[in-house]
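Extended Data, panel c. Modelled sequence:
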Amino acid sequence: MSLTILLMLGLFFTPLLIDLSAQTRKLQVEKQAYQLLYEELQAFIVNPLSSQNHTTVINGIDYQINLQDTTVAGQKEVCVKIEKNRFNKETNICQLSE
């Protein structure tokens, strides 16, 4: 193969690889947020009195975990918020306890 063809292939695939890397990073962060959300929901079901708002840092990303009262007695809404930074946009994932 000629050098020109290799250069053209490199120029074609480089942006695709960069985009794929960004999507992979975003999916990893969202997966971790859902994992934290379900762990908090399980902890609330086991011991409803010990739940409190807190922040967890994993791989340099801050996950803010907030528990909010709902109108239904005994239920709480658990939200995991990911702050906007250079690599991630701000994301807020919420779920009601059952």
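Residues 48 and 74 are 8 Å apart (CA to CA). This feature is highlighted in the accompanying rendering.
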